[in-house]
């Protein structure tokens, strides 16, 4: 009988690990052999020292760079955190300002409404006051430009002037100088007539009757009415030259029919 076959690797064969190890050793031997041909033993030692120093310096430099970068990153994180906190605070402050602004707008709107109402009320009261003052001056006239004399009797002067206009027995309540004293100018003589009809007659005839005198008669107007009269005085003069006759009554310039004149 034939003997049984033995199992396992053939004699003289090598495993994969063994082959790899032998290959690595052969490569190292080859490298050493090639380096032996190019470097002397002293140069080889120096080369190894330089390589070790270079590696050590590179490692130190790399560590320092890493440490520096780490510090910078920490700073950046802190700055970012502070910036985010500041933005959050600013956002909160802006929201507070917006809310306050809304409240202020509401208050301003309420104040504007109130002021508008007060202004309207003031204008109404001013117009009403002017109307009452105009009524209180209804029977008044002013004699303008009459020379001031020593110990003068204004009541007698007023009667004499009105007599020249055409009313010899005119009834007067009072007469006196009015307004501040100005050097070189005589104060007006303010006269209050008892009857309104006498005042109307005087105002109609005074211009013609006193043409050759150095004084004249005007109506006693309120400040508001006087300002309104003066505002259009130039236009009234121009219209007079064109044949348009206007008269001032009730705080307005009026035409011949008594209607307010519309100035252009």
Detailed description of the structure:
There is one protein chain. By secondary structure, the chain is α+β, with helices and mostly antiparallel strands. 62% of the residues lie in helices and 11% in strands. It has 6 helices and 6 strands. A hairpin with a 2-residue loop joins strand 5 and strand 6.
Describe the secondary-structure layout.
Blueprint: H1 16-38, H2 41-136, E1 140-144, H3 154-165, E2 172-178, E3 188-193, H4 196-209, E4 216-219, H5 223-231, H6 233-241, E5 247-249, E6 252-254
Antiparallel strand pairs: 1-3, 1-4, 2-3, 5-6
Biased composition (Basic residues): 1-19
Region (Disordered): 1-27
Coiled coil: 87-121
Shape label? rod-shaped
> How are helices and strands ordered from N to C?
HHEHEEHEHHEE
Largest beta-sheet characterization: 4 strands, antiparallel
Order the strands across the largest sheet as they lie in space.
2-3-1-4
**Cα distance spanning the termini:** 151 Å
Please state the structural category. alpha+beta
Strand content: 5-15%
* Unreliable segments of 5+ consecutive residues: none
Query: How many individual β-strands?
Result: 6
- The amount of helix comes to 55-70%
Number of helical stretches of at least 4 residues:
6
Mean pLDDT: 84
Rg, alpha carbons? 59 Å
Oligomeric composition of the shown chains: single chain
Relevant terms:
6 strands; two-stranded antiparallel sheet; 264 residues; alpha+beta; 6 helices; 62% helix; four-stranded antiparallel sheet; 11% strand
């Amino acid at each position: 009988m034939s003997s049984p076959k033995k199992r396992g690797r053939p004699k003289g064969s090598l495993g994969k690990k063994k082959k790899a190890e032998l290959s690595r050793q052969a490569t190292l031997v080859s490298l050493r052999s090639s380096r032996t041909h190019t470097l002397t033993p002293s140069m080889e030692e120096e080369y190894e020292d330089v390589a070790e120093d270079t590696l050590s310096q590179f490692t130190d430099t790399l560590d320092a760079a890493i440490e520096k970068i780490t510090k910078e990153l920490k700073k950046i994180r802190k700055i970012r955190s502070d910036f985010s906190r500041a933005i959050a605070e600013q956002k909160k402050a802006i929201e507070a300002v917006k809310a306050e602004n809304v409240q202020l707008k509401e208050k301003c709107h309420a104040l504007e409404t109130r002021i508008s109402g007060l202004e309207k009320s003031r204008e109404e009261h001013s117009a009403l006051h002017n109307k009452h003052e105009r009524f209180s001056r209804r029977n008044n006239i002013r004699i303008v430009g009459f020379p001031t004399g020593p110990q003068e009797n204004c009541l007698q002067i007023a009667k004499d002037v009105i007599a020249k206009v055409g009313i010899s027995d005119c009834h007067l309540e009072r007469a006196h100088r009015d307004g501040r004293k100005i050097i070189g100018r005589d104060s007006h003589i303010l006269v209050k007539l008892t009857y309104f009809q006498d005042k109307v007659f005087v105002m109609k005839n005074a211009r013609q009757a006193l043409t050759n005198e150095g004084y004249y008669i005007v109506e006693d107007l309120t400040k508001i009415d006087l300002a309104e009269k003066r505002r259009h005085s130039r236009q009234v003069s121009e219209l007079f030259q064109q044949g348009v006759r206007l008269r001032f009554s009730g705080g307005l310039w009026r035409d011949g029919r008594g209607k307010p004149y519309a100035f252009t």
